[in-house]
Amino acid sequence: MSDLSRRKLITTGLSATAGALGLGVAARIAQRYGLVPPDHGGIYGLGETLTYASQRLLTRHSLAREFPRSQISKPPFANEIPPLNEPFKRLQAGGFADWQLSVNGMVARPASFSLDQLKSYPPRSQITQLQCEEGWSYIAEWIGVPLSHILQLVEVHPQARYVVYFSIDPDWWESIDMADALHPQTFLAYGMNGDELPVGNGGPLRLRLPRQLGYKSVKYITHLTVTDSLKGFGKGLGSASPEGGYAWYAGI
Amino acid sequence: MSDVRATWYHSRVGDSACVPSAASAVPTTTVISRHSALVRITHWITTLCFFALLISGVEIVISHPRFYWGETGNDLTPPLFKLPIPASRALVPTGYGYVLPDQNGWSRYLHFQSAWVVVLTGLLYVIFGLFTGHLRKDLLPGKNDLSWQAFSTTLAGHLRFERPSEAEAWSYNVLQRLTYMFVIFVLFPLVIWTGLAMSPAFVSAVPATVTVLGGQQSARTIHFFVSLSLLLFLLVHVVMVCLAGFRRRMRAMITGRAATPMEHT
User: Fold this and answer.
1) Tell me, what's the ipTM?
2) Rounded CA separation A168/A160 (Å)
3) Average pLDDT in the A116-129 region?
4) Whole-angstrom Cα distance, residue B241 to residue B246?
5) A20 CA to centre of own chain
6) Which of A22, A101, B246, B257 lies in the 20 to 30 Å Cα band around A78?
């Protein structure tokens, strides 16, 4: 009897230690390979980490579905937008001629781009779906320059891990990891359905990220910064979304 | 009999004990091991997750209580149907003059966390069920069960609201077996599949998940109906537990023991 309980005690102790060590090692590996989202703290951290880690392993290079032109949603849908601020209205009055996208952070050559400059690079287009976390969706043709092209021009440092992007609306900023930032379908979009990008859909410049929900595709982009840590931005949760109670990673 | 089988057999019958009664004329109680620990633990984790998924799912639907078929759908496209409820977003044309508060943030966090827990729990249950023979012995209908006569007898009994026989306190009848198999191997996989089909990242890796369903909005609509079916199952399940004897059935699923009164012969 005492033999049995001793054996039981030893096996239980050993498996508990192995389990704890295993979890510790798993956490270390996950951290090292960038599988832990910045909003991993709190009671929902487990689910968020499992989702982000498994999807990063599964979808690092996969492409969002693209559709034939006949499937473009008619009429085009534009969601509610927050009231546009004074700086936006001033630029809008000037036909967005003075709109600038500044890029800095962990780059060799910080730079600023006008819309005309962005349009001078070889344009790319994709017909993809925009899916809102609320449940609705639409398909449109998005025209722009791949974010990777801009990141190449400014020469991103190899230790960079995230790109943080800011709207002209100071409450609206997001960030993505390098797998998404360098993804061929991640665009700085300035056109839609063969035309200029309407203000209602984020014009003159919007980030387009078809592998994540709509709220990551921030409208009215004016600034990008490249970083190896999200700790210094806002509350350190990665973007404005987790500060408002929404997940940082929105691939679901 | 292998060691595993022997242990299993003992756990089922070995701890049965006759409780002596005061007078031999009154029925004595035989305590039978009804549900194994793993079945009980996974049952209650699933119950918790189900409620979390249900509440958060309702909150998420409230932000856009319109359903579509095909690839896309929004406020400008005609819905397949809409729920007659107000929405938590101002742009949705619901016919109500007010907008409910936005609860999607925590609802989405909770929905996906519970989904992870219930999927991992379900995997554990199925693997355990295959290895121990629980699925084969307790849930797969037997050869005799599947005869039309056995089936109609059980069904007729249910329709006449007959109280379950004593045998049913320690084994499932054919209707229960078929229902549980349907929930475990049809409804749960379907709700997980249609859930994944709504993930833009997941379908980028496995596009067939959504294309065979006819589009992302179709997946959302099917997800809604499968969830309704699971809710219907839950309601019938709870009603049947109450009819069969709430305390005894609850005790069986909590402590693992079923007590059946038996006549002395």
Assistant:
1) 0.89
2) 24
3) 96
4) 5
5) 32
6) A101
CB contact under 8 A, A139 and B202: no
Q: Which residue of B has its CA nearest to A47?
A: B113
Q: What does chain A come to in residues?
A: 252
Residue of A178, A186, A100, A92 whose CA lies nearest to A146: A186
**A188, containing H or E segment:** strand A187-192
Q: Cα–chain-centroid distance for residue B199?
A: 23
Reported residue count of chain B is 265
Q: How far apart are CA B196 and CA B213, in angstroms?
A: 12
Around Cβ B31, how many Cβ atoms within 10 Å?
Answer: 16
Interface contact A73, partner B, CB < 8 A: yes
Q: What is the DSSP letter of A251?
A: -
A184 shares contact with chain B (CB less than 8 Å): no
Two tokens, residue B36: 């194994």
What CA–CA distance (Å, rounded) separates A136 from B66?
Answer: 9
Nearest to A141 by CA among A81, A96, A101, A201: A201
pLDDT above 90 (res A160): yes
Strands (E), chain B: 17-19, 28-33, 66-67, 81-82, 257-262
DSSP assignment letter at B73: B
Q: Is A126 on the interface with B (CB under 8 A)?
A: no
Output the CA–CA distances (angstroms, integers) from residue A61 to A54, A57, A115, B217, in the order listed.
Answer: 13, 9, 28, 25
Interchain pair B116, A51: CB under 8 A? yes
Contacts of A133 in chain B (CB under 8 A): 63, 104, 108
* Distance in angstroms (rounded) separating the CA atoms of residues B175 and B145: 9
Statement: the pTM of the whole predicted model exceeds 0.80: yes
Contacts of A138 in chain B (CB under 8 A): 72, 74
How far away is chain B from the Cα of A246, in angstroms, using its nearest Cα?
Answer: 4
Q: Tokens 């966390």 sit at which residue?
A: B113
pLDDT, tens digit only, all 265 positions of chain B: 344 333 333 343 333 333 333 444 445 555 667 888 899 999 999 999 999 999 999 999 999 999 999 999 999 999 999 999 999 998 898 889 899 999 999 999 999 999 999 999 999 999 999 999 888 888 888 877 777 787 788 888 877 777 777 677 778 888 888 899 999 999 999 999 999 999 999 999 999 999 999 999 999 999 999 999 999 999 999 998 898 888 888 888 998 887 655 434 3
Q: In what order do the strands lie in the sheet with B257-262?
A: B17-19, B28-33, B257-262
Question: Which residue in B74, B204, B211 is closest to A211 by CB distance?
Answer: B204
Determine how many CB atoms are found less than 10 A away from the CB of residue B175.
16
**Residue ranges of domains in chain A, CATH in brackets:** 66-243 (3.90.420.10)
Residue of B nearest to A81 (CA): B91
CB A172, CB A160: distance < 8 Å = no
Query: CA A118 to CA A101: how far, in whole Å?
Result: 9
Residue type, B82: K
Cis peptide before A210 (omega within 30 of 0): no
Q: What percent of chain A has a predicted confidence (pLDDT) above 70?
A: 98
